[in-house]
Amino acid sequence: MTQLGTLNRLSALDTNTVADALDFLGIKGAVYGLRPLWNCPSIAGRVSTLKFHLKADTSPTATSVSPEAATEGHVLVISGGIDGVSCSDAIVNSAWKSKLIQGTVIDGLYRTFDDVHDRCPAYGRGVATISDRSQTMQASFGLPLKIRGVMVHQDDYVTADSSGTVFVPAKRIEEVLEVAERISHRRNLMAQAVRAGRSASEIMNDAEIQSISRDGPSQAVTVSSSSNPKKSTPETHGLVSMFADVDTAAVSDALDKLGICGQALGIMPLENYQKITVGPAFTVRYVPAAQPAGSVGDFIDDVGEGDVVVIDNNGRVDCTVWGDIMTQYAGLRGIAGTVISGVCRDVNRAISDHYPLFTAGHWMRTGKDRVEVGAVNEPVAIGSVRVNPGDVVVADANGVVFIPRHRAREVAEVAQLIEKSEAGIREMIVDGATLAKAREAFKYHQLQRTE
Q1: Would you say which domain of life the source belongs to (predicted)?
Q2: For 264-398, which CATH superfamily applies?
Q3: Of 59, 131, 179, 360, which has the fewest Cβ atoms less than 10 A away?
Q4: Residue 70: pLDDT band by 50, 70, 90 thresholds?
């Protein structure tokens, strides 16, 4: 297989699939925390390594990265950054524009002066405005690096997308690609079965679908209705409808006024959703996997139409509990959205399907054989909030709040009053009133004060 053929095969796979293949083969390569630093394209290529170290003096250097550090067409992988200080800047953009590199993966921070559309595709821990030229210097290139606990060598392979970054040892690339392609075939079979209306438990226990043989014919699936037979009760529908036009900010203020803790700290939307997600909580608690490991997703067959799946994975960021098959299946069954105290993967699928996901982050490594379902529809903890089955979930671009079911009506009434008052304040200031006068007219400072 030529290098071009190998890179084409790697480029055709997402990081989730490659990470699953590494798991299957017992290879450590998926790293957490190195994500796209803007809306940049995915990258896949050979690695050129570059390491920085601290300078003995504070005299500035001419550039932070020398162009010769990268082999043409490779992905530049940089380590040795300092917290709060960039270890990559405009010189990297120049190398990218000159076609010397495909992109960068930085175990540190990045800065650039160019327009976002001209930036080199970059994956790292974040961005910074402070230059590294007086604090660090290029130490070496082409030597092994340790990136987030993974040893990376010159000419290894790397692939990075919206789910994160994965490294593959060069000497194992062929077997990793073979296994990854089989896994991709299996996932395609699962997606086909989902579209045909088969249940999640049936799919998960189908030996042919779960095998990773790519040589056999795709099994025939019987098409059936994918509609969800589990409907909400009139009482639940009534409670949910009270929050349909109330955002999380107003609900949060109402919770504060009533002395209720319901704001889920650290749980954020996958994207800037324009709509509000509302529904009763269907709770799931994950625990570390036993031997042999138990179920990771069969509960989805029991989730009702309009429910919000609320998953407690104890805040773990080292393995995911939600991916593209779950997203597709949930969307087909009319599930309102998913909230996870933990991470998800296959984010492109969720975004393209407009499926609402609210999580502590995203990463590509599977939870299979790492966690299993410990309990369903029992109390769970999400961002330090206790959530009971049937509690009302309200989620939007600001985050997620939970309302105890037995207090949902009073919370909704207070939230609606707050929104009405704030709308009145906005009208007054548009008409020329001072902010102080408008706030006084609607008793703004008493709106969120605990009664």
Answers
A1: Eukaryota
A2: Ribonuclease E inhibitor RraA/RraA-like (3.50.30.40)
A3: 59
A4: low
DSSP sequence for 111-178: ---S-GGGSPPEEEEEE-SS--TTTEEEEEESS-EEETTEEE-TT-EEEEETTEEEEE-GGGHHHHHH
Strands (E), 176-298: 268-269, 277-288
Residue pLDDT, tens place only, 260-271? 999 999 999 999
- Count Cβ atoms within 10 A of the Cβ of residue 49 and give its class: 0-12 exposed, 13-18 middle, 19 or more buried: buried
Are 342 and 313 contacting, i.e. CB atoms less than 8 angstroms apart? yes
Can you give the residue ranges of every domain in the chain?
A: 28-168, 178-210, 264-398
pTM: 0.75
Kindly report each contact of residues 190-194 with a partner whose C-beta sits within 8 Å and lies 24 or more positions away, as own/partner: 190/325, 191/324, 191/325, 191/328, 192/218, 192/221, 193/221, 194/226, 194/325, 194/328, 194/329, 194/332
C-alpha R_g of the chain: 25
- Tell me which architecture the domain covering 28-168 has in CATH: 3-Layer(bba) Sandwich (3.50)
Query: What's residue 219's pLDDT?
Result: 44
297 membership: H or E segment, kind and range:
none
Non-local CB neighbours of 242 within 8 Å, separated by 6+ positions: 408, 409, 412, 416
Cα–Cα distance between 50 and 161 in angstroms, integer? Answer: 21
